[in-house]
Structures are given as C-alpha cells and as structure tokens.
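Q: Structure tokens for this one, please.
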Amino acid sequence: MSLFGSAPSSAPTTSEDIKSAVVQQLQQEAAVNNARALITKINENCFKSCVPTPGSSLSSGETTCLSNCMEKYIAMWNITSRTYISRVGVESKRMGADASAIATLGSGL
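A: Here is the predicted structure, written as tokens:
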C-alpha cells in the first residue's frame, strides 16, 4: 500500500520524502478549505445583497449584481492572500536571520 494513494513506484522512501509528501498533502487540503471558505462567504454576502426576495429565477439585475459582487470578492481574496503570503515570507526570513545571528553568537562562546 502506498502513502496518500500514490502509485507504489512513487511511494516515499526516506523520511524527507515522507515529510515532503505530508507537507504537500496539507497544502492541498488548506487550498481546498480556503476555496470552500471563499465560496461560503460569496454565497452568504453576495446572495444576501443581490437577491432581496428569492424566487424561482434571477432577474438580469440580480445576475449582474451577483457577478459583480463575486468578482469583487475574489479580487479582495486574491489581494489578501498575496499580502498574507508576502508577510509570511518576510517574517520567515526575519526569523531565519535571527536564528542565524543567535547561532553565530553561540559559536563564538
């Protein structure tokens, strides 16, 4: 049996391979969860704003409103995601630099 449903020939063999496979799986699950959260927020907010009285079909104005709202929400989500990823990168580098400085200081003792 292989790890995470991959083919037996590509099964991780070292602890680094296993760690990499686990990290990749977690990243994929996080991406799916983020997409679900985005869709949920769009449904909650855009539908509430654009469809004041639900019926059996949407008017052209409601359809346009929903399209515009979704586009704005997705654009906001993308900006927020890019900003967050950038911030995490900056913080990681800063913490890495701090760890290097501490290691350098420790080696001089």
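A few notes: Residues 82 and 88 are 10 Å apart (CA to CA). The radius of gyration is 23 Å.
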